[in-house]
From TrEMBL:
Residues 234-311 form the YdbS-like PH domain. This is PH domain-containing protein. It comes from Candidatus Borkfalkia avistercoris. Pfam families: bPH_2. Keywords: Membrane, Transmembrane, Transmembrane helix. The chain crosses the membrane at residues 20-42, 54-76, 170-190, 210-232, 341-374.
Length: 466
């Protein structure tokens, strides 16, 4: 058990010493392994060992474990963590460390099976420089979480609530099935006639089709196996919306809890495929501070969720987000998207000339790319937050604060330069996802960079090129 105390206004948690049990078990197993192989070398036989010799191995292992346990209890200083006004102070042996609250990006709890037996929880604290674990008594974990403030003043958000994964988490199986089936039909439609003509044998063409079906089945089973693993791992998934964080818990045998602070969230992305839109569902992902620096990539929202629940999450973090009245670049973007896919069209035409005219069916792919890219695009600039819509295989909506943008770049092809538009990319960190938000007017891109200059903090580095 751990004991907490107060000293000069600070709350002190003595870290759980139940880890000595795990260390002792490890020493016992290691000693037994070494003694077993030492005995084999001495007696010169591998598996023909008497019960007396096995008892000797057991006694050696038990003796080593007991000596380690006594030494650890007598000489190992009891580590502690002190919760102060400005940060956390750690003391472990002769090592003393300090972490500011402003550097803490996430706090999560993981209670495994052995932890439940010993009433010990592993608490992982993630900072901008990395993550480190501490072990606390299960009775003191919630108190420890409550004493860690956010790095900034919490936003006023009402109402608080919780989001529980329901039947919509199983919609992922249907979504994957529909997407892969559509891809199979599309690929077969554009190239099966050409393959049948080139092979000049319907049976060989059917074998090609069976090959496509085999690839389809392998991909489908692979994605479904991954979804089954996610559903099993995130059993009992609950998101609690608090004043300054999302408290995410899941797991039955091994209970895990994440605390994702609002201040560590750099961007929200809502993603909807065609079938997701029909079901009123979407997939939520975040770009957090630690993920943007390449340190962590936790899957905080693994399931599809209702669109209104996703909007609640966004509103909790970004209550000032603008209304989604998207501005578009007009039909001039059609030419720019067509120029992007011109290389594929040229390849299809060449194949149609030298192989078979049926290869011209491949032109259907760039046409679909141009039409969908043109439809799923738009942007809106609010006072503090910008929203972007883009995507081909799915519609993506990204919400990001100007102060959290780290780079904004724009590229132009011939059609874009002629029509005064540019293809914009946005990032929120060195290792973050690149949001290719599509074409926007040059004047709107200049407005975006001006808003960045006004909102950026002095410690942030903004790069924008045109």
């Amino acid at each position: 058990m751990t004991n907490g105390s107060s000293q000069e206004g600070n709350r002190i948690f003595y870290l759980s010493r139940h880890r000595v049990v795990f260390y002792t078990i490890g020493v016992f197993l290691l000693s037994a392994f070494v003694a077993f192989w030492a005995l084999n070398l001495l007696v010169g036989r591998l598996w023909e060992i008497s019960w007396t010799e096995l008892l000797a191995v057991l006694c050696i292992a038990v003796g080593a474990a007991v000596l380690f346990f006594i030494f650890f209890k007598l000489f190992a200083a009891q580590p502690l963590v002190s919760v102060t006004e400005s940060g956390l102070t750690f003391k472990k042996g002769k090592k003393i460390g300090f972490v500011r609250y402003a550097d803490i990006t996430s706090v999560r709890e993981n209670e495994g099976l052995l932890g439940r037996l010993t009433k010990t929880c592993k608490v992982e604290i993630e900072t901008h420089l990395g993550a480190f674990p501490i072990y606390l008594s299960a009775d003191e974990v919630q108190e420890f979480f409550g004493l860690i403030p956010a790095s900034r003043e919490p936003k006023k958000f009402e109402p608080k609530g919780r989001i529980v994964s329901g039947r919509e988490k199983y919609a992922g199986f249907l979504s994957v099935f529909v997407q892969l089936t559509f891809l199979l039909v599309l690929v077969a439609a554009v190239n099966f006639p050409s393959v049948a003509v080139l092979l000049k044998d319907l049976s060989d063409a059917c074998m090609y089709l069976l090959g496509l079906l085999a690839i389809y089945a392998v991909l489908l089973l692979g994605f479904w196996a991954r979804l089954i693993y996610i559903v099993a791992r995130f059993t009992g998934y609950v998101v609690r919306i608090e004043a300054d964080r999302f408290s995410i818990s899941y797991g039955k045998v091994a209970k895990t809890e994440h605390n994702l602070f609002f201040d560590s969230i750099r961007a929200f992305r809502l993603r909807q495929t065609f079938i997701d839109r029909l079901l009123g569902l979407c997939r939520v992902s975040v770009e957090s501070a630690q993920k943007a620096k390449g340190i962590s990539d936790n899957n905080y929202f693994p399931f599809l969720m209702k669109k209104e629940d996703a909007e609640t999450l966004v509103f909790a973090v970004m209550p000032e987000r603008p209304p989604l009245a998207y501005k578009k670049t007009g039909r001039s973007a059609l030419l720019a998207y067509a120029e992007q896919s011109a290389w594929f069209a040229v390849i299809a035409i060449i194949l149609g000339i030298f192989l078979t005219p049926l290869m011209l069916l491949l032109l259907l792919l760039p046409v679909l790319f141009v039409m969908i890219s043109y439809k799923n695009r738009g942007y809106v600039f609010g006072e503090n937050v910008a929203a972007f819509r883009y995507g081909v295989t799915a519609e993506n909506i990204v919400f990001v604060r100007y102060a959290d943008m780290r780079s904004v770049t724009a590229a132009k092809n011939l059609s874009a330069a002629r029509n005064g538009i540019c293809d914009a990319d946005i990032t929120v960190g060195q290792f973050s996802r690149v949001f290719s938000v599509g074409y926007m007017n040059d004047a709107d891109f200049s407005e975006l960079t001006e808003k960045l200059e006004k909102k950026v903090d002095k410690d942030n580095e903004i790069l924008y090129t045109l």
